[in-house]
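From the thread on structure requests for the teaching lab: each student submitted one protein with a one-line request. Submission from student K.M.:

"Model L-lactate dehydrogenase from Sorangium cellulosum, tokens only."
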Amino acid sequence: MPDDQSVSPSKVAIVGAGSVGATIAYACLLRGVAKQIALFDVNRAKVGAEVLDLNHGLQFVPAATLDGSDDVEVCRGADVVVITAGAKQKPGQSRMDLATANVAICRELLPRLLAVAPDALYLLVTNPVDVITYVTLKLTGLPPARVIGSGTVLDSSRFRFLIARQLDVAVQNVHAYIAGEHGDSEVPLWSSASVANIPLDAWSVPGHGHLGATERAEIFSNVKNAAAQVISGKGATNYAIGLATAKILEALLRDENRVLPVSSLLSGYRGIDDVCLSVPCIVNRSGVESQLPIPMSSEEEAGVRASADTIRKAIRSLGF
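Reply posted by the TA:
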């Protein structure tokens, strides 16, 4: 359990009490992310039941209060607003297929949220997250640093898990990122990936696997198809994104200066402008402080540029 000094007195408001929103609330309670957690959903019975269930476990987690309502007033004064509300990805759907419906939800929700939490950081989890992050920026007029998408934090975690399993090492010792879109055009940054400061290209440890072209292709395919695999089996992804979002919230509320591949507005980053996508960023209490010039091969840089074009095309098709 974190000591009292490491527990922020801040308030987190989570919009959407579906499987993702409720699991984010659960992860936040377990990790002691905030002293106050608010859950908002238009479905009064659903949000009430989730809050009741979570409150029944407060004895077993760091001290916190958790409230819920179908009235947006429950979000008042939040330091971070996490938006998960939106149409759920169905088997066979891409994240981009959700764009039109979820942009419409944002148009309705954002003015109401701004009225009660005008000074908050806004963390977008709703898919397609890069498009929704950009749309939120445009609809709210907030400074770019304060509008953040969960981006490829989860994809990078999947990437590291699969590399770790292939090499039979602890996932905590793997450093590797997925950049670009949280979706089909995302890019694995193999050239900067390492295990215990050993570049993957130089990895040669007896009894601890091999990462040739075949293995790399299989790992990346599994990263891209991970959500579809989970959705086909149980209908939604929730646990890993819940933990990933809690980690982003810790970086924000505890002013950690943590490096995370969140989605944010790029301006002049490797020639990429006016689009939200993921690259490793320094994340702290101000939001996204800076985007890091992580080394990329020419192929990787071209892939990130192509990913930016894919996201930008979707944004333009929605009239933004």
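TA comment: Residues 1-8 have pLDDT under 50 and may be disordered. Residues 99 and 128 are 6 Å apart (CA to CA).
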